Amino acid sequence: MARYHAAVCRLCRREGVKLFLKGDRCFKEKCAVEKRNTPPGQHARRRGKVKGYGLQLREKQKVKRIYGVLERQFRNTFHEADRLRGVTGENLLALLEKRLDNVVFRLGFASSRKQARQWVSHGHIRVNGRRVTVPNFRVKVGDEVTLSPDLTKNVFLQAAVESSSGRGVPEWLRLDAENLKGSVVREPQRTDVTYPIEEQLIVELYSK
After folding, report:
1. Least confident residue range of 37-41, 58-62, 149-153
2. Which of 30, 89, 190, 198 would you call most buried, defined as having the most Cβ atoms within 10 angstroms of its Cβ?
3. Using an 8 Å Cβ cutoff, are 147 and 125 in contact?
4. Has residue 11 been placed in a domain?
5. Is residue 109 part of a domain?
């Protein structure tokens, strides 16, 4: 576990931004980016500035890691966003936000998206009363997300709920903390995504 945490910290420092891969640790002073916001390695400060294609590729990789999406899934999601009406970059972020594993994390039922994917894959998440085991299942307005009775007794879930109280829930979701359930009240908007993402760079990358 310690090796995993160290590897994730190096990844965040290399990208120069929090990727929120370690759950609540990313919101505390222990976060490696807060303590030492430089790339790992002896000659980190001597590295040249990334430009052009490198910036676009790094932005895509950053968003993939934040949401835990593989390359093919990400590319397919982008093409779907491009076919929708509106701004492609904002459509892309909205589609990623509506993934079930992200919704579980955003509601505070998991300390990280990785843990949220585990809850979903193991059949602990219900959408409108039906069990869903696909992490990239996309929620819609009006959907209700609940937990299986077994998961509500899980000590890791209880720890996640307690520690996520200060993280807040985005406005497009509504949380019923007492009954451990949430609902989708509207479509996610660009202002709901507070991560430092420049989605236009991703659009430029895929438009070549």
Report:
1. 37-41
2. 89
3. yes
4. no
5. yes
Q: How far apart are CA 92 and CA 90, in angstroms?
A: 5
Q: b/e map of 150-172 (b: 16 or more CB within 10 Å)?
A: ebeeeeebeebbebbeeeeebeb
Q: Quick: pLDDT tens for 6-54.
A: 555 666 656 666 666 666 666 566 666 566 666 666 655 655 677 789 9
Vertex 73, ends 145 and 57: CA angle to 5°? 120
Collect contacts of 74-79 with beta carbons under 8 A, ≥24 apart. Answer: 75/206, 78/202, 78/206
pLDDT for res 168: 87
Token pair recorded at residue 174: 């509504």
Contacts of 13 (CB under 8 A, 6+ apart): 32, 33, 36, 37, 38, 39, 40
Is the Cβ–Cβ distance between 161 and 108 less than 8 Å? Answer: yes
How would you list the strands of the sheet with 173-176, edge to edge?
Answer: 130-131, 125-127, 144-147, 181-184, 173-176
Mean pLDDT of the chain: 87
The pLDDT value recorded for residue 66 is 96
**CATH number where 135 lies:** 3.10.290.10
pTM exceeds 0.90, yes or no: no
The answer to whether position 16 is within a domain reads: no
The pLDDT, as a whole number, for residue 24 is 61
Which one-letter amino acid corresponds to residue 27?
F
User: Residue 115 belongs to what domain range?
Assistant: 99-186
Is residue 110 a part of any domain in this protein?
yes
Number of compact structural domains in the chain? 1
